[in-house]
């Protein structure tokens, strides 16, 4: 609620917040009045230090593969081609002539000291755990999302859920970027 108050500077407005308002009915309607209990000024809204999830903020490979499909309302095909782009990229990086979970198993084989694609950013046990985890994630997205039998992954009319899947594909592409940079740096 804004109240005029000449003591509040040039704009003459003071912001006050209502904690509770009660209509007191006494006699005819013109005699009714409102009792207001003022509350403390609420804290300013919190703003996250990151950009909102949108197609424009996703990895360029996901934007290129799925952006137009998503914008045109083809959510399931957008998700399918985003994960297909991930599969194609891993195949190109490794030159392993496989597809799906089998390709990911070979590419991210954490049992080796040096997997074909090393997405770990830590050393020691943390690095080994990270490799094992991303091995499972990359295989999992091929089995659970990319698998052609998973046609009804989510409601075809749910853009939010599709965007969240695209966000996962984007994250995995970014991990591949880091692995490529690491490979070129060594």
From TrEMBL:
InterPro entries: CHP02391. It comes from the Bacteria. Residues 57-176 form the Conserved hypothetical protein CHP02391 domain. This is TIGR02391 family protein. The lineage of its organism: Bacteria, Bacillati, Actinomycetota, Actinomycetes, Micrococcales.
